[in-house]
Amino acid sequence: MTSPMDVLLSRASTDRLKDPAPAGAQLEQILATALRAPDHGRLQPWRYVIVQGAARAILAEKVVASTLRVAPQTPQFNLDKRRQRMATMPMTIVLGMHLRPEHKIPLWEQEMSVGAGAMNILNALYAEGFGGIWVSGPITEDPVLAAEFGFEAPHRLAGFLFVGTPDAPLPAPSRPDSAGFMAMWDGTPAVFAQDRNNAQ
Ligand SMILES: Cc1cc2nc3c(=O)[nH]c(=O)nc-3n(C[C@H](O)[C@H](O)[C@H](O)COP(=O)(O)O)c2cc1C
């Protein structure tokens, strides 16, 4: 049996996805893992819009229209590619952020909670034998598109999860040495090996 640590260490993103996507009780359970994300103030900012079947063609047209709003010069080839991708993914989960800008919990903390929820979904998908990838782009900032999914400002999008079954085994992901990203604090500002490497 794969241990939870193996799942966390070996998960990788992929957009090479075929049917099936999770359904029914299995999908509900995967989404339930997102609702276990840390959530300061219990504001429950996570929202998920599931797009499948015939709705994918509508999603594709809305995404193309949004792309033209935010980047009117986008070449036709790119628009066609994007339309095709959106219309054929087995499932897309639109990540919504139900935000409360007036609340004493800062917005960034609310947004981080949505990010943590999305990460739980990616891990849960992988643990259950599915695959996925989180994608975004400038359309994620388009308030018109967000409203079309039900997220009127101040609510926003956090991107899209493409979901399905990987069409080939995922290669083991390369992982940087974790030592480069940690430091033992001695009272002076931490210096990370990773940043020394990047500075060269
Ligand atoms: C908020 C967010 C937005 C992202 N947007 C995109 C995107 O638009 N296109 C893309 O190829 N990858 C995007 N990524 C990166 C992929 O989701 C993924 O992390 C990356 O391909 C590395 O794969 P890995 O998860 O296997 O390390 C995004 C990641 C995050 C966290």
Automatic annotation (TrEMBL):
EC number: 1.-.-.-
Disordered as annotated region, ranges: 1-21
Signal peptide: none
UniProt remark on cofactor binding: Binds 1 FMN per subunit.
EC category name: oxidoreductase
Gene3D superfamilies associated with the record: NADH Oxidase
PANTHER family according to UniProt: NAD(P)H NITROREDUCTASE YDJA-RELATED
Protein known as: Putative NAD(P)H nitroreductase
Species this chain originates from: Acetobacter peroxydans
